[in-house]
Design a protein that fits this description.
This protein is mostly helical. The chain folds into 2 domains: 30 residues; 199 residues, Penicillin binding protein transpeptidase fold (Orthogonal Bundle). 59% of the residues lie in helices and 0% in strands. The protein contains 11 helices and no strands. Helix 3 crosses helix 10 and helix 5 crosses helix 7. The radius of gyration is 19 Å and the shape is globular.
């Protein structure tokens, strides 16, 4: 009985693994119509009775502005072009910082954030972290860096019910994403650590300082030349 149960569990794991691989490979070309986080936010609104309208309009890579691409890289993952999904130096630094107490520090790369937002729920269980590692590895295996950043910018949460760069630009600045100024792009990136509490259109002094730091980091990274030279190691 134990061997039979083990075989069935292994088969189930194999089928689920193959299905997840097929899904990630398909999404290399097909824009995901929604994300797991969007579903989670909608379910939360039903449970609390607080209505929420989800806003999201897909913008392909060519229509996403270079200043916003660079702003999120500078703010969230400056080694994006170099790593294969995980920044182990940042992970070690975060572990050491968190062991000392105080505010928790994360070390998620853009690839990890795409995996979590697109496929998984938002708690901190070991099961979810394990699945995050699995999906991050698949994303890095099957998608070029350009696609990872494209999906990120079209899926990241930028406020209650606001998902993706186009919805964020229209809500905060009353313009389309391609028309964002450098300052506006950096303000959007500056609020990403806490987008439901911070506002890009009504920035505090801290957000303004963080936005200026992001623009400085972009210059140090080489500006949009970084995007041209960005590593795309997968076929």
């Amino acid at each position: 009985m134990f061997r039979s149960l083990t075989r069935r569990l292994l088969k189930l794991a194999l089928y689920l693994g193959l299905a997840s691989m097929g899904l990630v490979l398909m999404l290399r070309w097909v824009p995901p119509p929604f994300t797991a986080l969007m579903i989670e936010r909608k379910i939360d609104s039903w449970r609390t009775g607080e209505a929420i309208d989800l806003e999201r309009d897909w913008r392909p890579w060519a229509e996403l502005p270079g200043n916003l691409k660079m702003s999120v890289i500078a703010a969230e993952d400056q080694k994006f072009a170099e790593h294969w999904g995980f920044d182990f130096a940042a992970i070690r630094a975060a572990i050491e910082h968190n062991e000392e107490g105080g505010s928790l520090r994360g070390a998620s790369t853009l690839s990890q954030q795409v995996a979590k937002n697109l496929f998984l729920w938002s708690d901190r269980s070991w099961l979810r972290k394990g699945l995050e590692v699995w999906f991050t590895a698949l994303i890095e295996l099957f998608w070029p860096k350009q696609r990872i950043l494209e999906v990120y910018l079209n899926s990241v949460e930028w406020g209650d019910g606001i998902f993706g760069a186009e919805a964020a630009a229209r809500r905060h600045f009353d313009k389309g994403a391609p028309d964002l100024s450098d300052r506006q792009a950096s303000l959007l990136a500056a609020v990403l650590p806490n987008p439901r509490e911070w506002s890009a259109s009504r920035p505090t002094a801290y957000i303004e300082r963080r936005a200026r730091w992001i623009r400085q980091q972009i210059r140090q990274l080489g500006g949009t030349n970084y995007l041209v030279e960005m590593r795309t190691p997968h076929p």
